[in-house]
Amino acid sequence: MAERNESRVTEFILLGLSNAPELQIVFFLMFLIVYLCTITGNSLIMITIYVHSKLHSPMYFFLSNLSFLDLCFSTVAVPKAIIDFVSQNKTISFNDCIAQLFFFHFFSGAEIINLSLMAYDRCVAICNPLRYTTIMSKRTCLYMIISSWVGGFFHGFMQTLPTFQLSFCRNEINHFVCELRPLSLLACNSIFISETMSMANSGSIALGGLLVLLISYLYIMSTILKIRSAEGRRKAFSTCASHLLVVILFFGPCVFIYMRPLVTFSTDKLFSVFYILFTPLLNPIIYTLRNEEVKKGMLRLKGKQVSFPEIHRN
Fold this sequence. Notes:
Elements: H1 2-7, E1 11-14, H2 21-51, H3 58-85, E2 91-93, H4 94-127, H5 132-135, H6 138-160, E3 172-173, H7 180-184, H8 192-226, H9 230-258, H10 268-290, H11 292-299
Helix pairs in contact: 2-3, 2-10, 3-4, 3-10, 4-6, 4-8, 4-9, 8-9, 9-10
């Protein structure tokens, strides 16, 4: 009888953030406004970089890819959550749940790799400026971007694969998105293998990205301290400060949620809201406010004719 019940779980119910009707409206408005701002901000950055030839350099190439990944990452879960806040039917089919889980980790994994590549790019630009255009060639940058997408695909696949080994006794997910941890809590059978695979996969990509970031910024800081000009040090540090801030905001909740055994905390949903909803919005805000070239490009965007982008200027 248990096996028969398990096989009938063809859809899940997302319990969301709260059952209070008044809070549902508040969450609906908050998610809708933030999502629209996320779409607008990231799209504006991509268009600005595409249009202005002065921004056709490796740093902005990676920034454009980051904005696109943020846009995709936010779109995976937020629109469904917005609809659920004002809908009586908060169900999601098994296939849609698995697809959401896959793309959620696909884009987050690709973003981790992209942030690591941005750190490497800044390391080469500051520590070896004379060879920068040679090292960060068009082909190299293209291969780097492709590697981030391939790595993200592998991460998403490895996070999704364990779910096919689970048998579900219940169908109520205590979350507003299909995530592996709350989904695993519904399983009837042992989750040791799936949990081990998930932690190993998340740990490898997160720790690998952090290692690249740490080594890159150790080289960067040591080089910045050797710069005699105070203005040169300020400019170099300002360029890296925005990237470091984005890294902290992205990796902080990521490490808290995924780099631990399967234990639930009352703050998990709060971290998930920040990680899924606000981080994709904060990235364009941080880079725009701290980057004069992007701000100038946005101001000149009106009436500018579109030109085909290049990775860097000769």
